[in-house]
Amino acid sequence: MKICVGLSGGVDSSVAALLLKQQGHDVFAMFMQNWHDTEGTLHGDCEWEEDRFVAEMVARKIGIPFYFIDLSKVYRQRVVDYMFDEYERGRTPNPDVLCNREIKFAAFLEAAERLGADYVATGHYCRKETLPDGTCRILEGTDPGKDQSYFLCQLSQEQLAKALFPIGGLYKSEVRRLAKEADLPSAEKKDSQGICFVGKVDLPVFLQQKLRSVEGDVVEVFAPYYADSAKYRRDQELAAKGTALTEEEWQEFSTPIDYSDIRFETETYRSGKHHVKKTRDKENPWGRRIGRHEGAQFYTIGQRKGLGIGGHASPVFVLATDIDRNIIYVGEGEDHPGLLRRCLRIAPDEIHWIRPDQAMQPGGQRRYRVRIRYRQPLQDATLVMRESGLYILFDRPQRSITAGQFAAWYAPDGEMLGSGVISR
Description:
Layout: E1 2-6, H1 11-22, E2 26-33, H2 47-62, E3 66-70, H3 72-88, H4 95-114, E4 119-121, E5 126-130, E6 136-140, H5 157-161, E7 163-164, H6 172-181, H7 203-207, E8 216-221, H8 224-228, H9 230-240, H10 247-253, E9 266-271, E10 276-281, E11 287-293, E12 316-322, E13 327-332, E14 340-353, E15 365-371, E16 379-386, E17 389-399, E18 406-410, E19 416-422
Parallel strand pairs: 1-2, 1-4, 2-3, 4-7, 8-13
Antiparallel strand pairs: 5-6, 8-11, 9-10, 12-13, 14-17, 14-19, 15-16, 15-18, 16-17, 18-19
């Protein structure tokens, strides 16, 4: 069979191509360029050119044909524009998940098929199995420290039928060893980081290509706020009820706290030997304004870097962003109550089942293991399907549940069954 390997210039895709060639398949490589702009990126202007050069040398070393394709236009339309739209709405997207769904196993796959490919292979650390009826299963990679199945959580059966993951059963150390033994030019190359095909970025600078910078307040939320919050107390009551909730209670429980009731009154005072009149906020037991930011849309829940806030004994994290009022709410410490939630919701039109035969119907309830971000250890949870959406109730509170990210759920044997965009 004829296989196209998406050769990125990294060691993982290089070894994927090597193994397929050694297995006797008709293999060719294709390098895709998906990004031209350098504004906001933290690498040199020619990093993609270096990657292409290494990929071409790898193909020559293995002895397979090499092709180049520019998919930057469709990448901008399907991935980057989506990113901008989501951030503008105050949500945090995952472009790597979209890149796999919309580019690698869509636009790239179509280009590979035009060159005669039967399958597309990548260097993802995940495993694929095909059942007798043709149904494809996708499972966690053998290496627990490198499992990348999460990034493929939006693929369809049609896409998986054409996908191959040659290194999914290997550990990273084995991949490095195979590359060295074959003297591949990518053997010592560091793993890529940052946004898929864009690289490491200064996110606010990158987003300012389309999103306007507007100064706003940074508000620190104090512990007494939660003691006085009717919403916080109500959430504790709903958590105690487990899954015995009404449709309205599920919607209520999955809605995060709205901090708009934290408001500040000002007072005037005289300062210095000249008694200059100044204005300050009156003391508020719920919180205080501690700084300024350049736009609430540039920040995400759980973020701790880039806030420019000092004077705290423990790290400060973003708890929430109010896009309409352009306010960021923060809290001190990893165990701050504003960081922790038990329940999230996925809207009906955002639910994706990799295995359609396993799809839940309204009224259904199942136990799965769930992750809400890459590299997060799988968490025990109950999935409850209702007419208003899919609700995920975690056994233990989760840190930084973030709208716009993907929640992916797994069976006990490591099979990833579905995913969805967290709506709140």
